[in-house]
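Thanks for the sequence, V.! I ran DNA-protecting protein DprA right away. Repeating your input here for the record:
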Amino acid sequence: MDALTSTLALLRLEGIGPGLYWQLVERFGSAEAVLQLSPQQLPRKLPDRANAQLAEFQRFSLDSELGQWALAERQRCAEECIYLLHREDDNYPALLKQIDRPPPLLYVTGDPEALSLPQVAVIGARRASRAGLDNAEAFSADLAAAGFAITSGLALGVDAAAHKGALRSEGKTVAVLGTGVDRIYPVRNAVLAEQIVAGGGAIVSEMPLGTAPEAGNFPRRNRVISGLSLGTLLVEAAVRSGSLITARLALEQNREVFAIPGSIHNPMARGCHHMIKHGAQLVETSADIVTQLGGLLSGMAEQPSLFDYPATPTQALPPDQRSLIAALGGDLRSIEQLAQDTGGDTGDLMANLLHLELEGLVEQLPGGYQLTGNGAKTLSGLVE
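Predicted structure:
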């Protein structure tokens, strides 16, 4: 029996999680060796059902329940064009193999070679601000244009924006799931998943086919995101969030961590500020990341950047709207503060804010208004 089938069978044994799997394999040498042990030889007592499964396997081998499940899983992967990568395979991503106790198996749809490209993970809040989404897409587009694959978790918000940014630059992107690769989650991003595969990227998971989106799966997913990547960029995150866990995992894996600073009044910036205090590098442009990682594969200065796209011409805006953009600056401002700064009528102020919001230059957040990415570019035109 080969290593792949043995590993599938061992992971299917009831009561065997990733931690116990690695304890057993490190102690006894291989999954196949573990499957030949008696229950008394195991360092931990397994459920009665697991003991029965193990005894049946030792008696009937591939004709047992475990053996038949492993063969069926392999057959289904073959039929659905899903690659199964064992950690001992040559095409298992080398960077992921370096982390402590990496996933024993990876399920991959799309191009498995995408997993071995130099990658930058781009992560952040599901309910990110418009400015956060703009930053995620723009940074990802620039990094993809510089030759990096963009890795994220296919979630709503920053993750989806990161994947879209990479695709917009005709770069490759990798989506790591906390479900089986045959169960795209969230369903709303199913079309995006298809675009990732069509663009030469990959969908990857360590979970068996059919695995549902259970909460306990996502910390494992986050560990793979950071483990595949040379560096991790935190765009927006609350202090208590899965994105911050991913960033901490990246630091533990001795990978670079980058964070985009934000307004001190924006709750979604606090996670970034927390990580900057604890070792993440503050970045203002994608070039900061490229320089640090040394991954400049082709002259980035010559690459078109989403940051370089023309902003709304300042002369096209009425003077009171230009004044309002200047008053917003780079911070979150309340209606009262804006009224005081601009000296305008509250009714006119609300009308101008609505117009700027419809133009995509301003967004409303709890506590006030702030500029979007396009609004910030328009502000820079005012300053110049």
